[in-house]
Specification:
Elements lengths: L6 H13 L2 H12 L6 E3 L3 H25 L2 H10 L3 H25 L1 H9 L5 E2 L5 H9 L7 E2 L37 H49 L9 E3 L6 E2 L6 E7 L6 E7 L1 E3 L2 E3 L11 E2 L9 E2 L8 E8 L5 E2 L6 E5 L5 E4 L5 E4 L4 E8 L18 H14 L6 H15 L1 E2 L2 E2 L11 H9 L1 E2 L1 H14 L4 E8 L2 E3 L2 E5 L3 E9 L2 E5 L6 H7 L5 H18 L9 H17 L4 E3 L3 H5 L12 H10 L10 H10 L5 H16 L6 H32 L1
Parallel strand pairs: 18-20
Antiparallel strand pairs: 1-26, 2-3, 4-9, 5-19, 6-12, 6-23, 7-21, 8-9, 10-15, 11-14, 12-17, 13-16, 14-17, 15-16, 21-24, 22-23, 24-25
Helix pairs in contact: 1-2, 2-6, 3-5, 3-6, 3-15, 4-5, 4-8, 9-12, 18-19, 19-20
Length: about 700
């Protein structure tokens, strides 16, 4: 390791503390600091390093995909492209920021394999082609310039700094080299500067182009996924859904009323779940349909709810305290639809939607939301988001009034308080009526007899729509405001969750009791068992498919808990890849601990014969100064008549090529350079002998 001791370890410890994975940071720090004190090294081939970097690239790409999927970053960018509204831009900014932060948080773990490989490798540096597909292609063709290597553990490239000329490696036979970096202005730019500028410029352009292309591809892929999501949800996510403006009942229909057993909702709750989940409510009865209200009335107009700062929390009644909560999961075809919720809901959490609306009839509608949602609803008895009752909530159709007046008078409901009237009406339906999904055709019927009158006076058997409609109109006749509600009944428990099937779609009454709207369900309780008995023999297999689709949807929309444990999945994958690589490598023990702690490889030009000329002239008193370059020193030596100007200048140019040119010298050139230096040394040796003899004779 060429970094200062414990610098990398301290950095990883800091990262682990900030990321919440201190134990992982400490483990990585130990692994990367251990090679300083270990004697064993691994001889990695270039192919090994290529594969390790490929693993890091796969981890990086996987991290990007996971981060954007779990944070819905790609969906947010797509929403901005389709609708550049303020809310969309804010949503994209928040989700995109979370995605980027998440990827940056994982970077030390993503690049840990290549860092460990360098730490335990016999080579101090890695070739640039390890990190570049284009350079690998050039390497395969044999046309790539050599000798460019990268040390991941330092911020500067020591190979590109000629100031390291004076830092002799442990294996070099020639000591005390001086600094010649300042004197290569005419040589180093020729071989290093242009090469590096071209490489860096090309790499930068490729990175920017790749990023731009990837961004466009992600946007297009997201558009495709959204269309696919809508198609799949429409195909596999069952649920008939309700219209907030009008619902047509089956009053008077002939035959069996049967719905499928497909799962449409899942509910999790501590203790008992909410018994009913309402989707819509209606005020006007126009047999056989219920309508929200008269045309043009403000009750059916939707008002947009402003989310909290996290853009996933929606406070419907901020000042209402709540003691109950339930996690409701379901599908929204095309990312929009009505949201089932318990009575008295005051707040929704973890519901990502661009637009969320409600109206005075208690309807919750999602616009531009996810295809799958898993939201937490906080609710309690008492106040609700429904508007106060008005005259329409007490209207009774003239066609039903005579029958309703007679029954209400028989039960004495007008004289009772609202709560007692509701209780007595529940007892009346439980005692006198029965639930059935089979409606027989009556051959003899009065011309003025409506389906509801026949239900109340003659058949006294029907499904939930009969009971709900009769309850609403009887309470209104007794002077108690009431409305017709539709949604789902929560009744089937499987493990830790409650399953809501399509056949659990239900209708009931909500009545104004003690200053608040209350659920009033007069349908006999045995309707649950009646529906269950008619379940399909294939329901068990359909449930298994539904569970698979539900799990996939949670993963697709980032609602599963798996992402919290993703770090524990990545670690064994890295260890497995490392084990498969290391098991085939031969560990080499260095000859001494100093070499093992600082393994080096020969660098080009350190064995240049030109240094022999420097030593020869230094022995004669012409030593190169600490900050003097070889070029300046050569000129000074020539000026002092210690060597031929042409000879030294030419030899210095060849030395620079050997030292700094990525291509180096061909074998014939190197032999010729060695011969020229030896010839120069021999001439200088003979000249020195003649000078010594002349001085001796003169003395």
């Amino acid at each position: 390791m060429s970094t200062p001791p414990f610098l990398i370890g301290a950095t990883l410890l800091f990262w682990g503390a900030q990321a919440g994975w201190l134990w992982l940071g400490a483990l990585a720090a130990i692994v990367l600091e251990a090679p300083r004190y270990a004697k064993n090294r691994i001889q990695f081939t270039q192919a090994d390093l290529d594969r390790i970097w490929n693993l890091c690239f796969v981890l990086l790409f996987g991290g990007l995909v996971v981060a954007f999927v779990t944070s819905d970053g790609a969906a947010a960018l797509t929403n901005v492209a389709n609708n550049n509204s303020i809310s969309n831009r804010i949503d994209a900014l928040n989700k995109g920021g979370r995605s980027v932060i998440l990827v940056l948080l994982w970077l030390p773990l993503i690049y840990l394999p290549i860092a460990v490989a360098q730490a335990f490798s016999e080579q101090e540096r890695m070739d640039w082609s390890t990190f570049s597909w284009w350079l690998r292609q050039q390497r395969g063709k044999g046309t790539r310039p050599a000798a460019l290597r990268l040390d991941l553990n330092v911020a500067v490239f020591r190979d590109l700094s000629a100031r390291h000329e004076r830092r002799q490696p442990a294996h070099a036979p020639l000591p005390d080299h001086r600094d010649d970096s300042d004197g290569v202005g005419a040589v180093e730019p020729a071989f290093e500067g242009r090469f590096l500028l071209r490489r860096w410029t090309t790499s930068l352009v490729l990175v920017l182009a790749t990023a731009f292309t990837a961004q466009l591809s992600m946007l297009e892929l997201q558009r495709l996924m959204q269309r696919l999501d809508s198609a799949l949800i429409a195909r596999f996510a069952s649920g008939r859904g309700f219209d907030p403006k009008e619902v047509r009942t089956a009053l008077g229909s002939i035959g069996r009323m049967k719905l499928s057993g497909d799962i449409v909702l899942r509910v999790e709750a501590e203790g008992a779940p909410p018994p009913l989940l309402r989707e819509a409510s209606y005020k006007m009865f126009l047999s056989p349909s219920w309508a929200a209200t008269r045309h043009g009335r403000p009750e059916q107009n939707f008002i947009e709810v402003i989310p909290e700062s996290d853009l996933t929390t929606w406070k419907l009644m901020p000042d209402k305290p709540t003691r109950k909560k339930a996690i409701i999961s379901g599908f929204l075809s095309g990312g929009q639809g009505l949201l089932p919720a318990p009575a008295g809901v005051a707040k929704l959490e973890d519901l990502p939607a661009v637009q969320f609306e409600t109206n005075q009839l208690g309807v919750l509608r999602v616009q531009e939301g996810p295809g799958f949602y898993q939201t937490t609803a906080y609710y309690d008895d008492g106040r609700s988001i429904d508007g106060a009752p008005d005259g329409i909530d007490e209207e009774v159709p003239n066609s039903e009034k005579q029958t309703l007046d007679r029954l209400v008078d028989e039960l004495g409901l007008r004289e009772l308080p609202a709560a007692q009237a509701v209780k007595k009406l529940n007892e009346f339906f439980a005692r006198e009526f029965r639930y059935t999904t089979w409606l027989e055709e009556r051959r003899r019927r009065k011309e003025t007899e409506t389906p509801l009158t026949r239900f109340l006076t003659r058949s006294r058997a029907g499904h939930c729509e009969y009971f709900a409609t009769a309850t609403v109109l009887m309470l209104r006749t007794a002077g108690i405001p009431a409305r017709y509600a539709v949604g789902y009944s929560v009744q089937e428990r499987k493990g830790q969750e409650w399953l809501v099937r399509e056949r659990h779609a239900h209708a009931w009454c909500i009545a104004w009791v003690d200053g608040a709207w209350r659920d009033v369900d007069t349908t006999p309780a045995n309707w649950v068992s009646v529906e269950a008995e008619r379940s399909s023999a294939w329901e068990r297999w359909k449930d298994r498919w539904s569970n698979i689709w539900f799990a996939f949807s949670k993963w697709r929309w980032g609602k599963g808990e798996w992402k919290e444990y993703l770090i524990y999945l990545v670690i064994p994958l890295i260890l497995l890849a490392g084990w498969r690589l290391m098991a085939q490598k031969q560990w080499n023990r260095s000859k001494n601990s100093a070499d093992s702690r600082n393994p080096r490889v020969p660098q080009p030009g350190f064995d240049s014969e030109f240094y022999l000329i420097e030593k020869t002239l230094a022995a004669r008193g012409l030593e190169r100064q600490p900050e003097e370059t070889l070029a300046a020193w050569t000129k000074r030596a020539t000026a002092e008549k210690q060597g031929g100007a042409d000879d030294l200048a030419a030899l210095l140019q060849v030395h620079y090529r050997l030292r700094f040119d990525p291509g180096g010298l061909e074998a014939p050139e190197r032999e010729r350079f060695r011969a020229q230096v030896n010839d120069w040394l021999e001439r200088e040796s003979r000249k020195q002998i003649r000078n010594d003899r002349s001085d001796h004779a003169n003395s």
